[in-house]
Amino acid sequence: MTEKIDRRKAKTKQALRDALVALIREKAIESITVSDLTRKADINRGTFYLHYRDVLDLRDHIKAEVQEGLLRIVAHLEPKDMFNQASEGKVYDGLIRVYEYFDSQADFFEVMLGQNGDLSFSSLMKETIHTHMYRKLIAAQPQNDMLVPADILIGYVASAHFGFILEWIRSGRKQTPAELAKYMSDIMYHGPLRALGFLPPKTQ
């Protein structure tokens, strides 16, 4: 019986998530009402209020769930493994999993980062990448080996990485997560100037 209730609850939450995404495509989130959501999701208002206080509470729960999902993946990343594999022309599986996750959440990212969404979501995702992904790499690197201060480097790389993902989503996700991971591996290992062709490729 508990399993049946949990499935029903998950189905309701998914319907509300899908309804919110669809409505944000049409108008600003501040203009969306609970009635709009329940009509779109085909549930009654009482059911909505069993789970959420209002539309913004629903949005905040989804944002938190998306961040938690990303954190679960990032927690298992080993950035040095990514660079070691890139040096051998390989793609790190953990990086592919990161892009697979963004792919699975792309509809929410697209609307939340669009003109009708919530721009604070961009800062949340960028900070997640900044704090939990690249600080691992910097922490393992001797500070006196760095050409620039660690905080500046982390900020640059995290912003560039999130911009990379954002452009992929906004341009219709034409590349697969594996292809995207290969591009990022090449950029990170060879550097932007080599990726652009201004410098000769690194020798293995």
UniProtKB/TrEMBL annotation:
One family name in Pfam for this protein: TetR_C_8
HTH tetR-type domain sequence ranges: 10-70
Organism: Paenibacillus planticolens
The keyword DNA-binding belongs to this UniProt entry's keyword annotation: yes
UniProt name for this protein: TetR family transcriptional regulator
InterPro entries: Homeodomain-like_sf, HTH-type_Tx_Regulator, HTH_TetR, TetR_C_Firmicutes
DNA bind region: 33-52
Alphabetically ordered keywords of this record: DNA-binding
Highest taxon of the lineage: Bacteria
Nucleus found in the keyword field: no
PROSITE patterns with a match to the protein in the record: HTH_TETR_2
